[in-house]
Amino acid sequence: MAEATAVVERLVFALNGRRYEVPAGDVEPSTRLVEFIRTRTPFKGTKLGCGEAS
């Protein structure tokens, strides 16, 4: 039996009480959430810590 593959058309989430909806094709799959927040929302103070897991 073949597995069904889900197709994501839009990314939808809430950030600080505001809804963000973006076509999935507008975001590279490797984009980190912190990069998305800094480049696609008005929130520029978001920082990436050391970038390494402990």
UniProtKB/TrEMBL annotation:
Superkingdom is Eukaryota
What protein am I looking at? Aldehyde oxidase 4
Recorded source organism is Panicum miliaceum
